[in-house]
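Quick question, first post here. What does this chain look like in 3D?
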Amino acid sequence: MSASHTPAVDVLVVGDANPDLLLTGDTVPRFGQAEQLLDAAELVLGGSAAIVACGLARLGMRTALVSVVGRDGFGDVVLHRLEERGVDVSAIVERGDVPTGLSVVLAQPGDRAILTLPGTIPLLDAATVRAAVERLRPRHVHIASYFLQPSLAAELPSLLGWLGDRAVTTSLDTNWDPAERWDGLSEVLPSLTVFLPNDEEARAIAGSIADRPVDSLDDAGAILSALGCRVVVKAGAEGGIAYEDAARTAGAPGLVLDVVDTTGAGDSFDAGYLAAMLSGVGTEEGRLRWAATAGSLSVRGIGGTAEQATEAELSTALV
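> Answer (accepted):
Ran it through. Tokens below.
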């Protein structure tokens, strides 16, 4: 491989980066000027793409993030937290005319509600991603939060074709669709290497593609993987389940741990899977074990990045 094609990073993560204001305790709002007391409030790094990028860097992958933030205090928080985790932030665009996005997470044991100010999140476009790819020459590109970035989503089929022409592997985690329409994925999935939904997202997207309700995860996995990509589903207590060519191919459970906070656990799962794939783990069961273990270990602390697994912790847990 010539110097001009030598990868500068292993993974370029594409998507959202914003602070999360994580509130725990009595978090079901009661209007009428009722004052409620919280157990805790934490300002942590959020955004699916940012959390995946931190998880990959923690697992030893050379990782860069391409995103858009505001030239403001929240943008400063995002850049500082990413740099602390060893993520290359040179491809992040700063805008002075739009505020950094923000999510307020109302957390209770086993569930959470999320209120998001989009801010700069929808502003990322394919031209910015192409420029980052040409400069950083990644082996793999991971895209997050498809439904929060309409400009990028509209251009994603052509962007994926462009990446495929350059032998760059790709993955996508759409995250939840706030509009619950789940549109556009039938044009995207055939060009992906790996699709990484959770159970609910997989069934909703499969239902949109098949134009009928899809209640079974195996039916959803069959519909989605029949389009040509590998489908790796985050399945809660079942851990991770993989589908290819319309059939279930492998599964692996997560760890049983005391849960502090589930925020970002799916993103840490994604990071574990991609790290395994890029590290040459040869079996799908092995890659799912990395993913499910990384996702499980992340729930030990508040926020999505505080307790993400290191290489050493993951190796110990996999023994």
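The longest helix spans residues 150-165.
The CA atoms of residues 126 and 155 lie 6 Å apart.
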